[in-house]
Structures are given as structure tokens and as C-alpha cells.
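task queued by scheduler; priority normal; single chain, no ligands, no partner chains; default sampling; output format set to C-alpha cells
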Amino acid sequence: MPLINVHLRRGTTPEYRSNVSAAIHKAMVDVLKIPHDDQFHVFHEVTPDNFHMQPVVFGLPRSERTMFIQLSFNQRTAEQKNELFRAIVDNLRLLAGVPQEDVMLMVLETARENWWAAGRVVNPETGYDARMTDVPAEN
């Protein structure tokens, strides 16, 4: 049951936010094999005076469209997270026209027992949603 928070400057359209959400969700389904209906994305649009960032970060110019995406989910391997990062960036470029320089990603891993939702069925052996056919290996 991942929870995604997307922080960006105020002024985007509903269509743009929908495309960003679709890009992230597609990557989560493709890479982490989460169920298609397991989508919780919260957009936080802030005024420019509340979004402070240097115009060049890590040696790359960043535009006013830069977004910060925080992904919260159970532990995954470094390889899975790197694959997810690549898929999100590629999908954002293809589905929402976001250049990779304008994407900042961060994973906040939580223990499986810290998640609950009515109707969710957890496989007691893996701790993951019982509908997931390809669960991550234990660390």
C-alpha cells in the first residue's frame, strides 16, 4: 500500500497532475508489481515563496517545474529502487513532459506492520498484499 506525496509549485493543471500520477503509478505497478488499484497519490501545490531551491542542484539546472516526489512503501532492494527511479523518470518524461532534471525522488521505507486499510488482505508469510504475485525478496 504505497503512499506517494508529490510537491510542486502552484499553477499546474488537473490534467498535468493526472499525467504525473499515471506515470508514477505505472512505474510502481511495472517495477514493484503492486496491484493496479493500490494507488494513493497526494499532490501538494505550494506558492513559489514556499518552494525554495537553488537554480542549479548537483551541477544541473532545475526549472520552476521541478517536483519532489516522496514514495512511502515497505522495504525493497537497492536494485528495485533504482529500477523504480528510472521507470518513474522515463514515464514522467513520456506521459507528462517532465525532463529528468526536474525530478527529485526519495523513498521512505516503513515496516510492513505499519500499514492498514479496510479490505486489504495481507499474505501472512510475506507481509505483502495477497494479490501480489511477485513479492520482493526479504532483506
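post-processing summary
- The first strand starts at residue 3 and ends at 9.
- The first helix runs from residue 14 to 32.
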